[in-house]
Specification:
The structure holds two protein chains of two kinds. Chain A has two domains: 68 residues, Winged helix-like DNA-binding domain superfamily/Winged helix DNA-binding domain (Arc Repressor Mutant, subunit A), CATH 1.10.10.10; 42 residues, no CATH class. In chain A, 66% of the residues lie in helices and 8% in strands. Chain A contains five helices and three strands; from the N terminus they run H-E-H-H-E-E-H-H. In chain A, a hairpin with a 3-residue loop joins strand 2 and strand 3. By secondary structure, chain B is α/β, with parallel strands linked by helices. Chain B folds into two domains: 217 residues, Rossmann fold (3-Layer(aba) Sandwich); 89 residues. Chain B is built from eleven helices and 13 strands. In chain B, the strands form three sheets. Chain B has a six-stranded mixed beta sheet with strand order 5-6-7-3-8-9, sandwiched between helices. Chain B is globular. The chains are: A mainly alpha, B alpha/beta. The interface between A and B is medium-sized, with 23 and 28 residues. Chain A: This is GntR family transcriptional regulator. Chain A: Keywords: DNA-binding, Transcription, Transcription regulation. Chain A: InterPro entries: Tscrpt_reg_HTH_GntR, WH-like_DNA-bd_sf, WH_DNA-bd_sf. Chain A: Pfam families: GntR.
């Protein structure tokens, strides 16, 4: 679950972000407390708090004094915009690199992407497509 | 977790200044200086005989140190009831009166520890399936360790030391210990010093790591800073070597024209891209791996210094 070789607070922040992007965590929904995160992922509570606070500083979550943490309005759109910017570098670049290595041409590659995109459309569209 | 922000919490729970301890001709502790803030979980790591138990004995007033200053909760722990009543030390092979039952051991603990919680002790004993009315001498090694773990947790002492507390505890019982430790720490923040060989198992529980080797502190840093502070670069030696040049090398392996070098480095995105373009593989290093590498690197450095001294003397 937790990858031992990267800062855990970053992983906690990423997981919460992911839940927001996938709309598992709706805007204005309450997120679990740091102690709940700590118990669930079996990590130090201070580490969990660091991950959550990172999102608070980033404006993705906000604090209601004495109640807890909530997902900010507009958080999902902001996260999706940010991820689109990183998409080419994170996913397309390694994909093209590997395709070149294997001698897969551009036409073949786009065909593969197209058929995969169509085949999986129904299962993922609900939360991803606009 | 909410950290208390009042001024009292700001004073370190444990402070050591240049502490050394010698047994005859062995330096068990060699100029140890540490300042540990309160209400955190610390991991005290190191090989057998590195000085972990000696350090904890000094901090719990069970042993003298030869030189330097020691303060626990603001005072010298040695024969100091004001300090000793607020700390709890669970040793690897904790001794209890043989004719006691676990229940009697708990009652004795209740007299000693100010914040002892008897209900919690019974609840934990049940989880560890501890026979409360069997005499200590009839308990298995694992059950004996469970008695220690229960006392350590239920004491809710301001500073609690667990020195390899799980000899004979199976994986399930150890997981119960880790889970209860985290849970109770979250509800009742306090200072925990956990000494362990099972680094992979405890790594995620720790906020701060202290690595000791032959009496000296080799590493004293937040666990989160340590994670990701080293990487292993692998690929063609002709490309790996220029890439790692100028960095602190913790380990180097070669196989023909291939090299795999572990260096202390937090790589930037640009450096990662550069490595990818060179066809190099970058692998993360876990806390356990890093501790092993650091310990071995410290040993190597020592033997290098020793060799240099020998050469100088023989000159």
């Amino acid at each position: 679950m937790i990858d031992e070789s990267r800062p855990i607070f970053l992983q906690i922040a990423e997981r919460i972000e992911n839940d927001i992007v996938e709309a598992t965590l709706a805007e204005e929904a309450q997120v679990p407390s740091t102690n709940e995160f700590a118990a669930f992922y079996r990590i130090n509570p201070a580490t969990a708090a660091k991950g959550v606070n990172r999102l608070v500083e980033d404006g993705i979550l906000y604090k209601r004094r004495g109640i807890g943490m909530f997902v900010a309005a507009g958080a999902r759109d902001r996260l999706r915009a940010r991820r689109r910017e990183e998409f080419a570098r994170q996913y397309v670049q390694p994909l093209v690199q590997e395709a070149r290595k294997l001698g897969i041409g551009i036409k073949q590659l786009t065909d593969m992407i197209e058929s995969t995109y169509t085949a999986t459309q129904d299962t993922t569209e609900g939360s991803v497509a606009q | 977790m909410n950290r208390p922000t009042h001024a009292k919490a700001a004073a370190p729970a444990i402070e050591l200044r240049d502490v050394s301890k010698e047994y005859k001709d062995v330096r068990a502790l060699d100029g140890v200086s540490l300042s540990l803030a309160g209400n955190r979980i610390y991991g005290l790591l190191g090989r057998n005989g590195a000085g972990k138990t000696t350090l904890m004995s000094v901090l719990t007033g069970q042993g003298f140190h030869s030189s330097g200053e020691v303060a626990v909760l603001g005072g010298n722990p040695y024969e100091n009831d004001r300090v000793l009543s607020r700390i709890c030390f669970i040793r690897e092979s904790q001794k209890y009166p043989e004719d006691f039952t676990p229940l009697q051991a708990f009652r004795a603990a209740a007299l000693f520890f100010e914040h002892w919680n008897a209900d919690y002790a019974l609840q934990l004993a049940k989880e560890f399936q501890l026979p409360l009315k069997r005499r200590i001498k009839k308990l298995s090694r694992g059950q004996l360790s469970a008695v220690g773990v229960v006392i350590g947790l239920a004491s809710r002492a301001e500073v609690t030391f667990f020195d390899e507390p799980y000899l004979g505890l199976d994986a399930v019982a150890r997981q119960i210990f880790y889970d209860r430790l985290l849970e109770d720490f979250a509800a009742h923040p306090r200072t925990i010093i956990l000494s362990s060989h099972l680094i992979d198992e405890v790594a995620n529980l720790l906020e701060h790591v202290i690595l000791i080797d032959r009496g000296r502190i080799v590493l004293d840093d937040d666990a989160e800073s340590i994670r990701g502070s080293a990487v292993t670069v692998a690929g063609a030696a002709s490309k790996v070597e220029p890439f790692v040049a100028g960095r602190t090398v913790l380990h180097r392996e070669t196989l023909g024209s291939l090299a795999s070098v572990t260096v202390e480095a937090v790589l930037t995105d640009a450096e990662r891209r550069q490595a990818a373009d060179l066809g190099l593989e970058i692998a993360p290093v876990s806390l356990q791996q890093l501790v092993v590498r650091k310990t071995l690197a410290a040993a190597e450095e020592d033997s290098a210094t020793a060799a240099a001294t020998v050469m100088e003397v023989s000159r």
